Amino acid sequence: MSMDAVFKALADPVRRQLLDSLHARNGQTLGELCEGRGMSRQAVTKHLAVLETANLVATERRGREKLHYLNPVPIHEIADRWIGKYERGRLDALAALKRDLEGQSDG
Amino acid sequence: MSMDAVFKALADPVRRQLLDSLHARNGQTLGELCEGRGMSRQAVTKHLAVLETANLVATERRGREKLHYLNPVPIHEIADRWIGKYERGRLDALAALKRDLEGQSDG
DNA sequence: ACTATATGCAACTATTTAGTTGCCTTTCAA
DNA sequence: TTGAAAGGCAACTAAATAGTTGCATATAGT
Asked: CA B61 to CA B39: how far, in whole Å?
């Protein structure tokens, strides 16, 4: 639920790649998610646990396999509540930045 | 430039608060950004350095003061290139998630 | 039953990170 | 020119993080 957990989860490139992988093909097993990642299975497990805690990934046990599903809702919430506010005034702020940084020095 | 630096910078709540503060009032000095934060000036300085490295904050020296300006461009780029792709298929993925997680158990 | 496969758990290490304190430099103002 | 205000630099500590290895458990297939 906490936004902090989501931001922290997104801070690691490996975890973002895992989300990308699930985005490309949802419902992958742990083994599949480990392939070609040059890292031990346990390391990937830990990353997936972080993503699960942040509610970015949901899992389901099927027999001896564990299937992983992307949950895009927290990302949507971040984009909505936090990033949106910076984008709204984006051009204004950009103009102000230019004015402040360049307008002071010389003319 | 690197997206990783931006994500890492956004991962810390103190740094997000600093961005929020600059969003509310741009061009604050270091001293102003330290006020009411319950943390040493040097700690805040380090956080601001991280934000500067990620190009989320630009600074200008004015006399003995250092002014800080929010740069919303990297946030926009993240929203554009990375978050956007998860939002586009959001409802689809959500439906798939529900189907996968609930539809399997019973029938 | 036996074996291979898929995953879980736990201890350990190395690196990074967030914060501190102490001291130095620069600038403004009397 | 002297003192106070604003900030910079560097060393240190504590905690979190990312990764490892070794072993245990559970399931599938024969």
From this structure: 23
